[in-house]
Automatic annotation (TrEMBL):
Pfam families: YtkA. InterPro entries: YtkA-like_dom. This is YtkA-like domain-containing protein. Residues 1-20 form the signal peptide. Residues 30-113 form the YtkA-like domain. Keywords: Signal. It comes from Ureibacillus massiliensis 4400831 = CIP 108448 = CCUG 49529.
Length: 155
């Protein structure tokens, strides 16, 4: 009985030791090339004046000319202003833009929603229109997280 048990253990050890991972196994899977965005904001933003926000998209070091989609979403930190998500204008050469005017001063956020070849990104950048209120200044000093009714939903 001990011989059968020992033989079983040796056989099981041989079988399990034969199942080693291929060190190059990761190369067998699709290697993602992440989409990257550089948000460009004009300075200064003034109330009622139209301003253009731009984003440069690259992927694997190349400019992205025709992504699946590029949308801009803008909201005010205190939640009192939220603009609808808007499709970006394709300026060519991997650059996309949105021209918008702002009716009130304060701390705003712009989030770019972009997708290309299965890579989806949603970078966010803050900006100031006109002058800051005391609560906006305090939020900046405290490095407060984004508040308001922002939704991170998909399209």
């Amino acid at each position: 009985m001990k011989i059968i048990q020992s033989l079983f253990i040796v056989l099981l050890t041989c079988i399990l030791s034969a199942c080693t991972a291929d060190p190059n196994a990761s190369q067998l899977y699709k290697q993602e090339k992440p989409l990257e965005a550089e948000i460009i904001l004009p300075e200064p933003f003034e109330v009622t004046n139209a301003a253009t926000i731009k984003v440069n998209l690259t992927q694997d070091g190349e400019k992205v000319e025709t992504p699946d989609y590029v949308h801009f979403e803008i909201w005010k930190r205190d939640g009192t202003v939220k603009y609808e998500m808007t499709e970006a204008h394709n300026d060519g050469n991997g650059q996309f833009s949105l021209t918008n005017s702002f009716e009130s001063e304060g701390l705003y956020y712009v989030q770019v929603h972009a997708s290309n070849e299965g890579s989806i990104i949603m970078p966010t950048k803050q900006f100031i229109v006109g002058h800051l209120s005391e609560s906006d200044k305090q939020a900046l000093q405290a490095d407060a997280p984004v508040t308001g009714e922002h939704s991170g939903g998909h399209h």
